[in-house]
Request: fold
Amino acid sequence: MSFRDLNLNTPLYNAIDDLGFTQPTPIQAEAFNVVASGADMVGIAQTGTGKTFAYMLPILKNLKFSKQENPRVLILVPTRELVVQVVDEIEKLAKYINTRVLGVYGGTNINTQKQAVAQGQDIIVATPGRLYDLAVSRVLQLKSLERLVIDEVDVMLDLGFRHQLINIFDILPERRQNIMFSATMTEDVDALITDFFTAPQKVSIAISGTPLENISQTKYSVPNYYTKLNLLVHLFQDAETYNKALVFVSNKRMADRLFEALDEFFNEELCVIHSNKTQNYRLRSIEQFREGVNRILVATDVMARGLDIDNVSHVFNFDTPDYPENYMHRIGRTGRAEREGQAIIFSTEKEQEGLEKIETLMQMEIPELQIPTEVVISTELIEEERTVIKERNNPTKRKDIDAPGPAFHEKSAKNSKENLGGSYKFKIAAKYKKPKTRGDKNYNKRNKK
Ligand code: AMP
Reply:
């Protein structure tokens, strides 16, 4: 496919020529018609695949020249660095088009940004918090918004922005196109799509189900978390074999729990990364793991995505991902540069479905190993392992493990109502010395002498 097949216009072709691009990347080719059609879309693509232009090409092609002040396109990204980068990319692509683009993010003077907004903009690129502040201040009017793009939504949710996003959805016009990009599919991303998107079309560059030849894979059937932990501790005793092991878990709560448990055994050899850790902490952890100071790194899918670390001896799937793509990404961290790598997956009974999806994608059955007899099989369960009934589609009842604490407007103790049962009536009656009624059989019962 060439850019000519996308039926763009001369200003865009000229900009693309200046950039030196010869053909659309796969995600650009796949996403173009969907975005252009106005349908809601979920794109699964990692940084570096050309995803920014995948949504900007159709958006810029269809954005008519206008002098109106209110923006028509809003692009939300998780970090200020990304705001700067996306604005930069748009400016390159819109070099020969008369389009007004503004990037806004927190930690900078809001008044300067208010003035820039007031001048009138076509496209706003923003972090969620600052966008909301500008909208609440009424300087930024979102009523003319036609398209909303949320980029890196997995990172955004991992950083705890779910509530901010929902607040923003509330102030956007209902009739709009939603476009979202995520590198990994997570439960949180899935829930957001179900709750707020209308029949979105999914666009992804098919992940290859063929793992690298030099990765050898094995699986263990393990009944529960504590047995998984015992097995991992048992295997890690052999420091020579497991000399650089990356342990994947699906969320930060599990990362913390596992880190604390392993810390008792492998204190000096262990590090962890997830989004609740500061950037400095994460960078230090990665550096120590890369250099071999620590031989075990516990990580979540989202945070480990951009990791570029060589010589990983083992990738552990401490839990079985629900989305087989995540498994392929995880194990791709080992077996690099012609070296042999080992991928090991632990699955409980409940995780068998995920395991089957992985094996179907790869069209192979992963060889199974038996739990060594020395490993203690635990019967204790953690909270998540006790059966819970999930009301998937009820946003008001969703138990969000990443939700922040209670809202500031939570009722104070003295104002909160308490159900005191039937006796409350009598307490009040006694307090205000209400007359007794002859027909009050409870009263009569209690005072029968
Ligand atoms: P992104 O995935 O959007 O972060 O883009 C990664 C890099 O690829 C950026 O530096 C883009 O300028 C570049 N890029 C985007 N589209 C193309 C293309 N069709 N051909 C070559 N490079 C591209």
